[in-house]
Amino acid sequence: MINSSASRGSGSTAPMAAPRGATASSPTTPAASSLLHSIVDVLDPYFEGDAKSAEEQFIARALYEPLRRMLTRLLTDPPRPAGTQVPHLTSH
Fold first, then answer.
1. Pair 63, 39: CB distance under 8 Å
2. Inter-residue contact 46 to 84 (CB < 8 Å)
3. 10 or 60: which leads in pLDDT
4. What is this structure's pTM?
5. For the residues of 14-78, what is the DSSP string, one character each?
6. What's the average model confidence in pLDDT over 41-48?
7. How many degrees, rounded to 5, is the angle at CA 47 between CA 44 and CA 50?
8. 15-43 pLDDT, tens per residue?
């Protein structure tokens, strides 16, 4: 049988801390710190220009085109004035 207290070491654990020289980066714009903007930036080379191979573009478009389209629309549409509602989509 294994003694569980022996496998823990001395019994005191210190929380993980950042290295002493580490400082938080301060982005200059909200877009620079946005995960959503970063995703679009990573996907852009696969959708614009010839920077990637045809195979890579085909795969990226097949997998990520709806996501990229939605993010681009979300991040570029102007905000709606307060008090206005988004029209409900209904099928007739």
1. no
2. no
3. 60
4. 0.50
5. PPP---TT------SSHHHH-HHHHHHHHHHHHHSTTSS-HHHHHHHHHHHHHHHHHHHHHHHSP
6. 90
7. 100
8. 555 556 555 555 566 666 789 999 999 99
